[in-house]
């Protein structure tokens, strides 16, 4: 039997402690969506119709005053607030069940001590200007997970690895002029979208401006990335937007190495939205450039909760990068004036 909207009152512990406006049935509905990340499957598990489920979620969001879900035609994802609420509901449900067992005396003593849960092993592969050594600290704080991070030579290879089960999660970029990517069989969610930008030494002649013309960097040396795909993308972007072929300096995927090269005036580089710029480096958007976007993809075999935790963590990192204070950058530019190319080091060094 299907019920549109069963009249379920507030949970007993909600009365009198500020949660009386929250309907336990709405929390249960949200928990089902958080587990399934699909409204159709969640409604079926609750034996209600999908419109009724949508009403419950909307009512809960209005009661809490926050957005809990991001919903598109392809995928449903949790917001940061949604992830916090899902974890709280899980903890509360477990506590209530334990309390019921104690009250009814149904607690069963284990025959032997329970062994601690083994950490999940997961692999995150990257096909992006984002060095994987910068990503490792982002994901290491996600639950009890033993992480392996790898590099894919292109988004196409990354998608094939995910479909083949060789990686659980994949980070990739949609950059200007990149071809469409076959994402069949994968869940995909947007991490961040931002204007295409370059990183310059703080003393660079163009660092004081709010944006730069890519053509003005035609004579610079460019940090080319660790893969042929990254270098090809760099060359295509410079050709399309700046009308020049860049002089490329091969680099590893070590973010520290690239930052030191830029800070010392040995190269400039495109900036990734998840990697913060160093103190002697400024980030400037390119005038007239299309936005670049970072995405997280995963196959159906990847636990939904794991994907959500990584997604929320990366979105927070992107927000932190976007909020880097401009005043600090201006102070560096004023302290490190451009010295021209006649010196052995193009730009002023950090004092």
UniProtKB/TrEMBL annotation:
Belongs to the LysR transcriptional regulatory family. It comes from Micromonospora maritima. The keyword Transcription applies. Pfam families: HTH_1, LysR_substrate. Residues 99-127 are annotated as: Disordered. This is LysR family transcriptional regulator. Residues 22-79 form the HTH lysR-type domain. SUPFAM superfamilies: Periplasmic binding protein-like II (SSF53850), Winged helix' DNA-binding domain (SSF46785). Keywords: DNA-binding, Transcription, Transcription regulation. It comes from the Bacteria.
């Amino acid at each position: 039997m299907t019920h549109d909207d069963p009249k379920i009152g507030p949970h007993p512990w909600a009365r009198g402690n500020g949660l009386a406006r929250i309907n336990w049935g709405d929390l249960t509905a949200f928990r089902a969506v958080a587990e399934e990340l699909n409204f159709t499957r969640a409604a079926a598990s609750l034996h209600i119709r999908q419109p009724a489920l949508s009403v419950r979620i909307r009512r809960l969001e209005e009661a809490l005053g926050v957005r809990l879900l991001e919903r598109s035609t392809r995928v449903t994802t949790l917001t940061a607030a949604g992830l916090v609420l899902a974890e709280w509901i899980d903890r509360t449900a477990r506590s209530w069940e334990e309390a019921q067992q104690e009250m009814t005396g149904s607690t069963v003593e284990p025959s032997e001590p329970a062994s601690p849960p083994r950490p999940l092993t997961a692999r995150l592969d990257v096909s992006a200007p984002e060095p994987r050594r910068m990503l490792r600290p982002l994901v290491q704080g996600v639950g009890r997970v033993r992480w392996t991070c790898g590099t894919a030579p292109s988004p196409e290879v990354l998608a094939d690895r995910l479909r083949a089960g060789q990686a659980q999660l994949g980070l990739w970029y949609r950059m200007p002029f990149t071809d469409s990517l076959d994402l069949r069989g994968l869940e995909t969610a947007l991490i961040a979208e931002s204007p295409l930008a370059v990183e310059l030494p703080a003393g660079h002649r163009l660092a004081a401006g709010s944006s730069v013309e890519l053509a003005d960097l035609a004579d610079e040396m460019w940090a080319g990335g660790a893969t042929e795909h990254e270098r090809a993308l760099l060359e295509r972007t410079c050709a399309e937007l700046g009308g020049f072929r860049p002089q490329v300096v091969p680099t590893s995927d070590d973010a520290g190495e690239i930052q030191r090269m830029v800070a010392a005036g040995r190269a400039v580089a495109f900036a990734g939205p998840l990697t913060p710029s160093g103190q002697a480096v400024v980030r400037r958007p390119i005038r007239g450039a299309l936005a670049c976007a970072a995405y997280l993809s995963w196959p159906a075999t990847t636990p939904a909760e794991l994907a959500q935790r990584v997604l929320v963590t990366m979105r927070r990192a992107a927000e932190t990068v976007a909020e880097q204070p401009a005043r600090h950058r201006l102070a560096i530019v004023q302290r490190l004036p451009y010295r021209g190319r006649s010196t052995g080091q193009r730009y002023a060094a950090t004092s």
